[in-house]
Specification:
168 residues
Length: 168
């Protein structure tokens, strides 16, 4: 897959967001134990963008909302809310923060607000919202298990080296 940094079409859509100090500050927050929030948001944005292009969906809205979907500035494992769980609250916080940063289309608002569908009951109004929700879920799981996969690969390599030494 092409790297997001080399995709001029993608960069033209999100470069104003990525240049923002508010977006860059997301790098200071851990997301899924082994990634930071900025890296996660870019991965969700770019993967959703590529899928939206393939499916004939609004790739611009998906790319921009993907960058903004987790725009909150607290550690979700430590901060608790009286009004509900993090899964319920953070899309609303992200939407409020995103609206302060840039104008949003109704579709972009829905994508940000509904990206936790399944954990929340608000149904997505657009296919783009469902797409980003699915990509976000997939990447969250992948990010969480990446270190385990890396350890497994190291163990497999060691086993192969040991077995190779015994076969000589």
């Amino acid at each position: 897959m092409q790297k997001w940094q080399d995709d001029q079409m993608y960069l033209a859509i999100v470069e104003d967001l990525l240049a923002s100090e508010k977006i860059q500050a997301l790098a200071n927050y851990t997301q899924h134990h082994h990634s930071d929030r900025l890296t996660h948001s870019i991965a969700v944005s770019y993967t959703s963008f590529r899928w939206a292009l393939r499916l004939g969906l609004n790739a611009t809205a998906v790319a921009r909302a993907g960058i903004l979907h987790d725009m909150f500035y607290y550690d979700w494992r430590e901060t608790k809310f009286e009004l509900g769980s993090h899964a319920f609250i953070h899309p609303r916080v992200a939407l409020r923060n995103a609206e302060k940063l840039t104008p949003l289309s109704p579709m972009e608002k829905d994508i940000i607000l509904k990206h936790m569908w399944g954990a929340t009951i608000s149904l997505p109004q657009y296919r783009e919202s469902l797409l980003l929700d699915m990509v976000d879920d997939y990447l969250a799981i992948a990010e969480f298990f990446t270190p385990l996969q890396q350890k497994w690969n190291v163990l497999k390599q060691r086993k192969n080296v040991l077995l190779g030494n015994f076969q000589k």
